[in-house]
Design brief:
With 289 residues, the protein is an alpha+beta fold. The chain contains nine helices and nine strands. The strands form two sheets. The chain has a five-stranded antiparallel sheet. The N and C termini lie far apart (62 Å). The relative contact order is 0.10.
Length: 289
């Protein structure tokens, strides 16, 4: 048994999904049956597939905690050629902040809460408890590896793992809310202004509702660099909560459309804005109607 396989088995027993890496820190390529993703992909991938291949196919999606699979004949050749072990962070409910140089490490130390760190060839891995969407180049020298990604195992590291901070999640949000240069991300849906005619069961005055709405829209529009999606969620949640005691209807759908339009105006993709606002309305104690 190779040292890489021994390491992988130890991680698997601890609940960390693992896979071998070939030269160049890359996963092994797909087998003939899975070439070009002809099989449909692993069920654990973004779109559930039909692959039941016993081999080490489909990159990060091959990561497993099944020790029988790891020691199976179908994986034996890969372990003989393996140059490293990788793991799927989200599968262990973790997020790895990959800091690729000394400048990125310095930024993290000044900005983020301390957590477990692992030295890398050029920088450090910072490991947080909690999973999220992965993204590359969220800032110079910084990648986020969690869902649908793999990270190279470089040892247990030092320090106590802390919970994933909002500042790390915001790095991906910034990516989602900053339009590409010269590109129109999305257009606003048909905008319906709120007025008292759609709020026949609201206990608030029209002035009260409009004042709160305008303040909320201003907050969303001020997030021109990052955070507009989260701000839209928060505004929707707050405004809906103000109507928790109203008999209804209060026209919250019209309020929501105006918040969505404000988010889109500063670069939030329409689908992301709609999801954030809908979630904000539905997770509040108010009526999403």
């Amino acid at each position: 048994m190779s040292s890489h396989l021994r390491t992988a088995l130890g991680l698997a027993r601890a609940g960390v999904p693992v896979l071998p890496l070939r030269a160049g820190k890359l996963p092994f390529g797909n087998c003939v049956t899975c070439a070009g993703n002809a099989c449909g992909g692993r069920p654990s991938m973004k779109n559930a597939g039909a692959c039941s291949c016993p081999g080490v196919c489909h990159g990060w999606a091959a990561a497993t905690t099944d020790t029988d699979t790891l020691t199976s004949p179908a994986w034996a050749g890969a372990w003989r050629q393996a140059q490293a072990v990788a793991y799927h962070p989200a599968g262990a409910r973790l997020t790895v902040l990959d800091l690729d140089d000394t400048e990125a490490v310095s930024w993290a130390r000044q900005t983020l809460p301390a957590t477990r760190t692992v030295p890398t060839t050029r920088g450090e891995h910072w490991i947080y408890l909690g999973a999220m969407r992965s993204a590359n180049s969220v800032r110079p020298g910084v990648d986020i590896k969690s869902a649908m990604a793999y990270a190279r195992w470089l040892g247990p590291g030092i320090g106590t793992m802390t919970h994933l901070p909002s500042a790390v999640r915001a790095l991906v949000e910034r990516e989602e809310t900053t339009p590409a240069r010269g590109e129109v991300v999305s257009s606003a849906p048909g905008r319906a202004e709120w007025d008292s005619t759609v709020a026949t069961g609201c206990r608030h005055t029209e002035r009260y509702v409009r004042t709160g709405l305008e303040r909320g829209l201003a907050l969303v529009r001020s997030r021109t660099e990052s955070g507009a999606g989260s701000q839209a969620f928060g505004v929707a949640q707050f405004l809906a909560a103000q109507h928790a005691q109203c008999p209804g209807p209060c026209g919250l759908d019209a309020l929501g459309r105006q918040i969505i339009a404000a988010a889109i105006s500063v670069g939030v993709p329409a689908s992301y804005a709609e999801r954030a606002v809908t979630n904000g309305l539905n997770t509040s104690t108010g009526r999403a109607a």
